[in-house]
Specification:
Blueprint: E1 2-5, H1 15-30, E2 34-39, H2 49-61, E3 71-72, H3 77-89, E4 93-96, H4 100-105, E5 111-112, E6 115-116, H5 127-136, E7 140-143, H6 145-152, E8 156-159, E9 163-166, E10 176-178, H7 186-196, E11 201-205, H8 209-221, E12 228-232, E13 234-236, H9 252-257, H10 262-270, E14 279-281
Parallel strand pairs: 1-2, 2-3, 11-12
Antiparallel strand pairs: 4-7, 5-6, 7-10, 8-9, 13-14
The chain binds glutamic acid (GLU).
The site of glutamic acid has 7 residues, from loops.
Length: 283
């Protein structure tokens, strides 16, 4: 068993992160397995080194010792490029030149589980036009979802304690796999890394369950193993809303400064006991 905690270093960790990390750590230790840290820092414009250091200090304070060195996504850009190339060679991706504004203005754009669905504008370009524009215009690479799903067929994953779940990648439309401003999207980088790290058990918040539709499809297309998944309830604040990076009071640094014992907090979180005012909720 190998689990991981994968913070994005775009802000300070809060109680929700601590809950997720405590569960992943406990699952690994209970099974005599490994617990790894992955720093999801492919978004160069938002990732900050100070948040990497602060996140590791928070995990240390919580007593959640990790195995090996933290993995940095920014050190694996070549792996994502190689995966994208494999998909490109088999005709599963196409370049898209639309701006966010183009997509938002398109009347054809309905909503899916993770936002506006791409209306397919660039799907219809000829090969000649694609080649010409790729050479001169900023672009991202999108998955040709219909084609990919037609090849992969029906897909499922095991949700721990709940049995088999059917993946519904079609609901997400032609998702972005490599961005104009970042060499890989979360979907591609996370799927490639979970396999490369040998993650057997993905434990993460229920806000990411819809992403698993897409990750399961990418596993099928790239011949990668499918881990077991557990999408856990989300920590909500006194206002009943799930915690966000702006909720400074739930920040681990604030709790530490207030004299909270990190190890005791991690033990409480593992047992589902939250500080007064906080609760666990399924979205
Ligand atoms: N880096 C992602 C986040 O902080 C988590 C990715 C994952 O667990 O798959 O939301």
């Amino acid at each position: 068993m190998l689990t991981r905690f994968a913070p994005s270093p775009t802000g300070d960790l809060h109680l929700g992160h601590a809950y997720s990390a405590a569960l992943a750590h406990a699952a690994a230790r209970a099974a005599g397995g490994c617990f790894h840290i992955r720093i999801d820092d492919i978004d160069g414009s938002r990732s900050r080194e100070e948040f990497v250091a602060a996140s590791l200090a928070d995990l240390d304070w919580l007593g959640l010792a990790w195995d090996g060195d933290p993995v940095r996504q920014s050190a694996h850009l070549g792996d994502y490029a190689a995966a994208l190339e494999r998909l490109r060679a088999r005709g599963f991706v196409y370049p898209c030149f639309c701006t966010r504004a183009d997509i938002a203005q398109s009347l054809a754009a309905p909503h899916g589980p993770s936002g506006i669905l791409y209306p397919g504008t660039c799907h219809h370009l000829s090969d000649a036009e694609r080649a010409r524009r790729v050479a001169s215009e900023p672009h991202c690479w999108r998955l040709d979802m219909a084609r990919a799903v037609a090849l992969a067929g029906e897909l499922v994953w095991e949700e721990e304690g709940q049995g088999t779940r059917a993946a519904d990648p079609l609901a997400h439309g032609d998702v972005v796999l490599a961005r104009k401003d970042a060499p890989a999207s979360y979907h591609l980088a996370s799927t490639v890394d979970d396999a490369a790290m040998g993650v057997t058990h993905v434990i993460r918040g229920a806000d990411l369950i819809a992403s698993t539709d897409v990750h399961r499809l990418l596993q099928a297309l790239l011949d990668l193993p499918t881990p077991l998944y557990r999408h856990h309830a989300l920590v909500c604040g006194p206002d009943g809303k799930r915690l966000a990076k702006r909720d400074a009071a739930a920040g681990l640094a604030a709790l530490r400064d207030a004299g909270v014992d990190g190890r005791a907090l991690a033990a409480d979180l593992r047992a589902g006991r939250l500080p007064a005012g906080y609760s666990l909720q399924n979205p």
